[in-house]
Specification:
- By secondary structure, the chain is an alpha+beta fold.
- It has two domains: 39 residues, no CATH class; 344 residues, Neuraminidase, CATH 2.120.10.
- The protein is 31% helix and 31% strand.
- It has nine helices and 23 strands.
- The strands form six sheets. Strands 3, 4, 21, 22 and 23 form a five-stranded antiparallel β-sheet that branches. A four-stranded antiparallel β-sheet has the order 5-6-7-8.
- Strand 18 and strand 19 form a beta hairpin.
- Helix 1 packs across helix 3, helix 4 crosses helix 6 and helix 6 runs antiparallel to helix 8.
- The N and C termini lie far apart (100 Å).
- The chain binds 2-acetamido-2-deoxy-beta-D-glucopyranose (2 copies).
- One 2-acetamido-2-deoxy-beta-D-glucopyranose binds next to strand 19.
- One 2-acetamido-2-deoxy-beta-D-glucopyranose binds next to loops.
- This is Myocilin.
- It is found in: Cell projection, Cilium; Cytoplasmic vesicle; Golgi apparatus; Mitochondrion inner membrane.
- One of its GO terms (molecular function) is metal ion binding.
- InterPro entries: Olfac-like_dom, Olfactomedin-like_domain.
- Its main location: other.
Length: 474
């Protein structure tokens, strides 16, 4: 009888083994990864049948029999015994639930650490790039402010032996010390220098303009990502409608625009990587950016230099300033912003016909001036003055040579209520519904390659499909 009681107790204990005998340990393995291990004291299989598969019913009935036996042996304590066991089980369950919550928190913390490490990795890559660029700068750029741009301008032969002469330096990162990589890059830059000296080809693929028409409707926004830091309250995100290698049509560019010294340009492989928050690259711009008016076009980032009317063309492949020019008479830093403010005085835009600047001047008395720019030199090709006041509109963009303005940046249901056609010089009122889903839209730009508007609405990167009318019906 004694033996039976002992066996029975053992089986009861074994029926709640995980809770009773489990221990939980965290440690780092050799590669520095976090390792979670659960240890459970296991009875030898023979001593008590495992609770798996078809055995479970048999086990349960045996358990019931044994329970009855125990209760008879233990006499009056039966009821409280079962109750006590239930209470104990409940307690164990609560413990397990608590442990699970804790694990969840640990996981979140680890995820955050991964993100942080990713960020640091990007910084290190950036640092490596800067180190690599430095000697070239000393040898070829006395002015010093234009980094790789001068590398391209100088003769290839002065870069070439220099880069090749220092592969494998002890302080260099693996990527930088790979001689074949160095060789490839130098050769590539040389090649590029020749290409960029040629006159710019016509900016657009044939057919883009043929498909042009008047804006008919804008879809509801699709949300791609929410910025995680306070610096992401407003910003810009874009895809190049006419990309140049090494970047492609899927590459996503992003800049958080809050802060006095905005220089970081994040590159993501595609929208999925943007959504996951893993940039493939962080470019550090040589001069700070003003506001959210930047745009990406034909392998360059075009932007307004902070506190100035200076426009810069930053070549994304060579990571250097390729052109700079003042936008004549343009108001800046709060003179003629959009209605939400944010120093949005100069807004650059791209459409089927090329590169545009949307701004105002004192001569235009705050009315929107629209200028078509030469994408290579940033010179004004042609300008139009409109009678719509820049600080009364929330944002503006250009589609097929027509300027469109948005009435409100914060109203959830607003309209695009005005358009100006550069072909005719005529303006007119329209009423195309537009949704500000997150109620603080700080950037709206058109991409003609995929017929979408890209917008930054209160930390959220969103896009809208646009529908254009049949050109024959205009
Ligand atoms: C468009 O909306 C803006 C802002 O609400 C308003 O000031 C302007 O008068 C409207 N324009 C037209 C043409 O309705
Ligand atoms: C805005 O428009 C959408 C769709 O037309 C509608 O469902 C929503 O209720 C409107 N919101 C407001 C605040 O009017």
């Amino acid at each position: 009888m004694r033996f039976l009681t002992a066996l029975c107790l053992f089986c009861l204990l074994a029926s709640i083994p995980a809770q009773d005998r489990a221990s939980f340990r965290r440690s780092n393995d050799r590669s520095g990864r976090c390792q979670y291990s659960f240890t459970v004291d296991s009875p030898t299989e023979a001593s008590c049948p495992g609770p798996g598969g078809a055995d479970i019913q048999a086990l349960q009935s045996r358990l019931t029999l044994l329970e009855a036996l125990v209760s008879r042996l233990a006499g009056g304590e039966t009821g409280t015994g079962t109750m006590g066991k239930q209470a104990a089980l409940q307690e164990k369950y609560a413990q397990v639930a608590a442990e699970r919550t804790r694990l969840q928190r640990d996981k979140e913390r680890l995820d955050a650490q991964v993100q942080e490490l990713q960020g640091r990795l990007s910084e290190l890559q950036l640092e490596a790039q800067r180190l690599r660029a430095k000697p070239c700068q000393l040898s070829s750029s006395p002015g010093g402010s234009l980094q790789g741009g001068d590398q391209r301008a100088s003769s290839g032969s002065s870069i070439f032996p220099h880069l090749v002469s220092r592969p494998g330096g002890p302080s260099e990162t693996a990527g930088a010390s790979d001689p074949s990589w160095q060789f490839g890059r130098a050769a590539y830059q040389e090649f590029k220098a020749e290409v960029t000296e040629l006159p710019a080809p016509r900016p657009n693929r044939k057919g883009d303009e043929d498909r042009c028409g008047e804006l008919v409707s804008v879809s509801d926004p699709e949300t791609h990502r929410k910025a995680d830091g306070i610096s992401g309250k407003y910003g810009m995100w874009l895809q190049d409608p006419n990309p140049i290698a090494p970047y492609g049509p899927k590459t996503v560019w992003r800049m958080d625009a809050v802060g006095a010294d905005v220089r970081q340009l994040f590159a993501y492989e595609d929208k999925e990587q943007l959504a996951r928050g893993f940039p493939t690259k962080v470019l550090l711009l040589p001069e700070p950016v003003e506001s959210t008016g930047a745009t990406v076009y034909r392998g360059s980032l075009y932007y307004q230099r902070r506190r100035s009317r200076t426009l810069l063309r930053y070549d994304l492949a060579s990571e250097s300033v390729a052109a700079r020019r003042d936008l004549p008479h343009a108001g800046f830093h709060g003179q003629y912003p959009y209605s939400w403010g944010g120093y949005t005085d100069i807004d650059l835009a791209v459409d089927e016909q090329g590169l545009w600047a949307i701004y105002s001047t004192s001569k235009a008395k705050g009315g929107i001036v629209l200028s078509q720019l030469d994408p290579h030199s940033l010179e004004i090709r042609r300008s139009w003055e409109t009678n719509i006041r820049k600080n009364m509109v929330a944002n503006a963009f250009v589609i097929c040579g027509r300027l469109y303005t948005l009435a409100s940046y914060s109203a959830p249901n607003t309209t695009i209520n005005y358009t100006f056609d550069t072909a005719t010089g005529q303006s007119k009122a329209v009423a195309i519904p537009f949704r500000n889903l997150y109620r603080y839209n700080s950037m709206v730009d058109y991409n003609y390659a995929n017929r979408k508007l890209y917008a930054w609405d209160n930390f959220h990167m969103v896009s809208y499909d646009v529908q254009l009318g049949d050109p024959d019906n205009i």
